[in-house]
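User: Please fill in residues for this 343-position structure.
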């Protein structure tokens, strides 16, 4: 992808300037981030990011054309997956999980739990795995504009500020990142993952392999692990004071909770579909009952009319309907109330 130098790069971070940039960021529908820093207008374009980081600025800028099921198959590396399953990071192979961590922490960083990757994250990982070139500069700018309440890419923005020759005060507060923060070795050990013979290997709990891993950790080539732990978790003092097994337990519990919540949401959706189906069936039954009732009433009406149609009393079939409705009185025969006009 041409992103290796970007991943390995390091630059001084100016936290206050980064916050000023996002505080003055204009809402824009185009792929340009406009803001003000120290009274200077800043316009960040994909071309500027590509030039600053030395990465390509071409190919796809969104993942609408990438099918979700295809991305799932690429990420899981098996064709026989359940298409309605809730994919968590624990379902992914080690290499895919590492790419996912790069996506959610470096390329498109976001807060919150990364246990349940989003559809966009999975499509991004699938493009990286199958070699589809992604326009990272455009994605970075769109990500900046989509999360105004967060301050992602502090190192990238500080590097851009320096390249624009801003008049940064000498006493401006800055942070110099350490290479020790690039890899969380303690976190890898918690997941029983280590680098062996050019491959990332996950060891099963128990047995000689785990003992060998502990021996390698104490062998001396990772002497800076304690410093890594302090720098990596300095914002989590309560975790540091607990036992070494508390953090993976909490993360596994969080993963289980996220997975259970995803299942609950799926079941809730299925129940809603069942309720909608029941409502449709009830309405269909009511329509059938109404249709049968209407047919029964029409049949009863026709049966009531048949005797009238078969006798002479029916005014429609009798020619007597031509006579006046008010009968004439027979003057010659007073005992006859009605004149017999038919005789």
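Assistant: Residues filled in for all 343 positions:
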């Amino acid at each position: 992808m041409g992103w290796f130098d970007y991943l390995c790069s390091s630059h001084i971070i100016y936290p206050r300037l980064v916050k000023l940039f996002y505080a003055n960021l204009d809402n824009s529908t185009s792929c340009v981030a406009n803001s003000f820093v120290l009274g200077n207008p800043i316009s960040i374009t994909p071309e500027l990011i590509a030039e600053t980081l030395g990465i390509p600025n071409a190919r796809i800028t969104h993942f609408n054309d990438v099918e979700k099921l295809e991305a799932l198959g690429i990420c899981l590396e098996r064709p026989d997956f359940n298409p309605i399953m809730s994919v968590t990071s624990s379902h992914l192979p080690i290499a895919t999980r590492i790419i996912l961590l790069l996506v959610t922490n470096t390329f498109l960083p976001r807060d919150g739990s990364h246990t349940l990757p989003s559809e966009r994250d999975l499509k991004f990982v699938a493009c990286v795995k199958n070699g589809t070139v992604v326009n990272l500069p455009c994605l970075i700018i769109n990500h900046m504009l989509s999360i105004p309440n967060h301050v992602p890419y502090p190192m990238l923005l500080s590097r851009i500020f320096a390249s624009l020759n801003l008049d940064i005060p000498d006493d401006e507060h800055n942070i110099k990142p350490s290479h020790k923060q690039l890899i969380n070795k303690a976190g890898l050990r918690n997941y029983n993952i280590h680098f062996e013979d050019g491959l990332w290997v996950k060891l099963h709990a128990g047995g000689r392999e785990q003992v060998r891993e502990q021996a390698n950790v104490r062998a001396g080539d990772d002497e800076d692990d304690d410093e890594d732990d302090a720098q990596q978790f300095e914002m989590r003092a309560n975790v540091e004071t607990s036992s070494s097994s508390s953090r993976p337990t909490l993360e596994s519990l969080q993963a289980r909770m996220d997975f259970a919540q995803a299942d609950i949401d799926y079941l809730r959706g299925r129940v809603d579909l069942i309720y909608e189906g029941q409502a449709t069936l009830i309405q269909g039954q009511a329509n059938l009952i109404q249709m049968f009732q209407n047919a029964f009433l029409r049949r009863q009406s026709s049966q009531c009319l048949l005797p009238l149609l078969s006798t002479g009393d029916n005014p429609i079939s009798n020619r007597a309907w031509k006579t006046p409705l008010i009968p004439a009185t027979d003057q010659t025969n007073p005992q006859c109330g009605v004149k017999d006009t038919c005789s």
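For context: Residues 206-247, 316-323, 328-343 have pLDDT under 50 and may be disordered.
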